[in-house]
Amino acid sequence: MQNVVLIVHLLLALALIGVVLLQRSEGGGLGIGGGGGPQASRPPLTGLAKMTWALAAAFIATSLTLTVIAAQQSATTSVLDRLGVPSAPAPMAPSLPDADGLLPPPAADEPLTPPRAD
Where is this region: Disordered (predicted)? Predict the structure, then answer.
């Protein structure tokens, strides 16, 4: 069932691409430069525009159908659990560096090692 819906979905996608490419460009991409002001009316839908809407609706319907089929066939276990792969151990928290490593380097006139307190 899923394969049939998937094939119909792919055919709809190709048909939708073809129908959109066949339509005449009206220019003014994103509404820029279309002009006409507020009195400009929309032209009536052509046959290609109606076919585009029908194909788009069918494409969305097959997309939702494929989603429902995939959700029904999904398992509650992980793929790694089904393969028997052991899970990775939890990462350990990083340890804090010692306080001496956080100090800035000594100045040129200071000794490299601190004096002993004997």
Answer: 83-118
Residue 83 lies in a domain: no
* Nearest CA-CA partner of 55 in 12, 17, 18: 12
Per-residue b/e over 9-31, b at no fewer than 16 CB within 10 Å? beebeebbeebeeeeeeeeeeee
Total tally of structural domains belonging to the chain: 1
Task: Return mean pLDDT, the chain.
Answer: 79
Residue pair 62/8 in contact (Cβ under 8 Å)? The answer is yes
pLDDT tens profile 53-78: 999 999 999 999 999 998 888 777 77
Q: Which two tokens stand for residue 103?
A: 């100090």
Whether 60 maps to a domain, the answer reads yes
